[in-house]
């Protein structure tokens, strides 16, 4: 099933095209990762899907309905977004942050409820943040902060999570920690996860579905094993590489090389 579809999307910044006639379908219950070079429009696409940006033409469909015609609270109950490098007010605790995820469910007639409290507790448990519930967000490590923000998104109770470069500025250990958490949420709860990643190997390892963006539109979309090829890397990233199999996961592993690496690569292959 497809709960998110993008059709003929066009978007520009100061009359400079960023997305052009772009169409994709996001498989429900899977992890989809947008990849591409800097400035290719990955984050713009994600923000447009989240309705943070208004396209010039084209549309985003959420469960078959044009997202631009839906009420904000209605969208927020189905889809949450974690932007790149979110910041919390100084002194705000993890629990207070996670509670903000329940705001779309509040109204004058429906105030804080037992259901809201349970959703917050479940989100803290799912992200292993219970022990830090009363800790200030700005006092946490990078990985813990990301888990706290993800917990807020989980408390929102949406079926779909959008994340813009959730591993940026994190060291390798914390990157794996965050991506493992998202993978587990997909596996155990069936949540649809859409995110932007820079690391091609991490994208191949965790994604069911890759969307490679080049020249303001989709260059290739599909399973990592099908589309992560030397040709794709060369055209999308303008990078020479060798692709082998990840020894642990069996997913494509990209080994990039520059001019020196290219000469060594061809020397080895000519000798075989």
From TrEMBL:
GO terms for cellular component: plasma membrane. It is a peripheral membrane protein. This is ABC transporter ATP-binding protein. One of its GO terms (molecular function) is ATP hydrolysis activity. It is found in: Cell membrane. GO terms for biological process: iron ion transport. Residues 4-240 form the ABC transporter domain. Keywords: ATP-binding, Cell membrane, Ion transport, Iron, Iron transport, Membrane, Nucleotide-binding, Transport.
């Amino acid at each position: 099933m497809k709960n998110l579809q993008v059709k003929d999307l066009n978007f520009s910044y100061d009359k400079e095209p960023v997305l052009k006639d772009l169409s994709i379908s996001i498989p429900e219950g899977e992890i989809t990762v947008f990849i591409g070079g800097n400035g290719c429009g990955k984050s713009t696409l994600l923000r447009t899907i989240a309705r943070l940006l208004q396209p010039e033409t084209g549309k985003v469909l959420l469960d078959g309905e044009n997202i631009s015609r839906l009420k904000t609270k209605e969208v927020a109950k189905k889809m949450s977004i974690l932007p790149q490098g979110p910041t919390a007010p100084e002194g705000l605790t993890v629990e207070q942050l996670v509670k903000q995820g329940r705001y779309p469910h509040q109204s004058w007639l429906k105030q804080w409820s037992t259901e809201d409290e349970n959703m917050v507790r479940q989100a803290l448990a799912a992200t292993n943040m219970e022990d830090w519930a009363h800790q200030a967000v700005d006092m946490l490590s990078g990985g813990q902060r990301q888990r706290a923000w993800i917990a807020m998104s989980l408390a929102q109770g949406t079926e779909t999570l959008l994340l813009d470069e959730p591993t940026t500025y994190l060291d390798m250990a914390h990157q794996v920690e965050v991506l493992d958490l998202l993978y587990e949420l997909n596996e155990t709860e069936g949540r649809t996860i859409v995110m932007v990643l820079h690391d091609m190997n991490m994208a191949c390892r965790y994604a069911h579905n890759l969307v490679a963006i080049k020249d303001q539109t989709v260059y290739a979309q599909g399973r990592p094993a099908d589309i992560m090829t030397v040709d794709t890397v060369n055209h999308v990233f303008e990078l020479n590489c060798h692709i082998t199999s990840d020894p642990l996961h069996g997913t494509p592993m990209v080994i990039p090389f520059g001019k020196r690496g290219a000469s060594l690569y061809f020397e080895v292959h000519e000798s075989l």
